[in-house]
């Protein structure tokens, strides 16, 4: 069984404690979301899990056969157009250029980009378009484990829902596994098998929520009800600095 196992993970930047005693396991086909306030250490946690930062205390064991990453900021190559940015992982894997281009075009269309945008360079794309390119680049290689750091933050609600639906299909049909970071509690409830709620300074898990209902059966009513349940908790209201009157 492919798993990502995080045990007793602590992290410091200089003398500042960023993460304290993080523990979780993600199994093949699961979606685990980490939700928490800005500056709480979510991106740092994901970088540690993806081996982009060295683990200093505790352990991260990743036995997934392949993984890819969509960063919080799109990080596109400015000298490559949309299709060449998306196909970069396929080219690195040795795909022929014409096949890599074809597959990249298909996924670009699926993720709401239009043919007239394919030759554009990143400087000529909107923030939401850049995010879609970055998301497509991570998914085109068909990873077993996908790291997603707030991939939908620059998208309007309609497109956000559409891409969430694509993700749910990939989870249910292909057993895609996702470590998902978001500020958006409703988004986490819509997508996740498990949510870890992080409190900041240092980032540590204060609550954990598990959802058994299959993602494609979660309607708006389910999402609103579960959100309301979570928001009854006073510690959560203060964690998110919400004012509920
Ligand atoms: N390379 C670094 N060197 C020093 N401090 C860092 C570094 N990267 C992040 N930090 C600090 O670590 C803390 C957590 O940052 P991180 O980016 O992980 O938060 P986050 O939860 O992802 O926030 P956001 O929701 O705003 O993206 C912040 O105080 C940040 O300033
Ligand atoms: Mg972040």
**What would CATH call the homologous superfamily of the largest domain?**
P-loop containing nucleotide triphosphate hydrolases
Number of domains: 2
Strand arrangement, major sheet: 5-6-7-3-8-9
What is the highest CATH level, the class of the largest domain?
Alpha Beta
What ions, cofactors and ligands are bound?
Answer: adenosine-5'-triphosphate, magnesium ion
Cα shape? globular
Overall description:
The protein is an alpha/beta fold and 245 residues long. The chain has 2 domains: 1-12 and 29-38 and 51-66 and 151-232, 3-Layer(aba) Sandwich (Rossmann fold), CATH 3.40.50; 77-142. It has 9 helices and 9 strands. It has a 6-stranded mixed beta sheet with strand order 5-6-7-3-8-9, sandwiched between helices. It has a 3-stranded antiparallel beta sheet with strand order 2-1-4, with helices on one face. Strand 8 and strand 9 form a beta hairpin. Helix 7 packs across helix 8. It is globular, with a radius of gyration of 18 Å. The N and C termini lie far apart (47 Å). 35% of the residues are buried. The model has no long low-confidence stretch (mean pLDDT 93). Bound molecules: adenosine-5'-triphosphate and magnesium ion. The site of adenosine-5'-triphosphate has 10 residues, from helix 1.
């Amino acid at each position: 069984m492919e798993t990502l196992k995080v045990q007793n993970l602590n992290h410091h930047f200089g003398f500042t404690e960023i993460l304290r005693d993080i523990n979780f396991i993600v199994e093949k086909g699961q979606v685990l979301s980490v939700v928490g306030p800005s500056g709480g250490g979510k991106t740092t946690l994901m970088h540690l899990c993806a081996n982009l930062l060295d683990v200093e205390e505790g352990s991260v064991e990743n036995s997934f056969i392949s993984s890819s990453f969509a960063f919080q900021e799109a990080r596109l190559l400015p000298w490559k157009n949309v299709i060449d940015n998306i196909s970069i992982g396929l080219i690195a894997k040795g795909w022929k250029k014409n096949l890599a281009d074809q597959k990249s075009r298909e996924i670009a269309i699926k993720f709401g980009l239009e043919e007239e945008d394919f030759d554009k360079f990143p400087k000529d794309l909107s923030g939401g378009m850049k995010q879609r390119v970055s998301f497509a680049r991570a998914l085109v290689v068909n990873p077993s484990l996908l790291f997603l750091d707030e991939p939908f933050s620059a998208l309007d609600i309609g497109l956000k829902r559409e891409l969430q639906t694509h993700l749910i299909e990939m989870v249910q049909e292909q057993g895609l596994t996702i470590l998902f970071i978001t500020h958006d509690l409703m988004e986490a409830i819509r997508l996740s098998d498990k949510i870890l709620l992080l409190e900041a300074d240092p980032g540590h898990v204060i609550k954990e929520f598990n959802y058994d209902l299959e993602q494609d059966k979660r309607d708006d009513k389910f999402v609103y009800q579960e959100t309301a349940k979570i928001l009854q908790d006073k510690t959560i209201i203060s964690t998110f600095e919400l004012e509920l009157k």
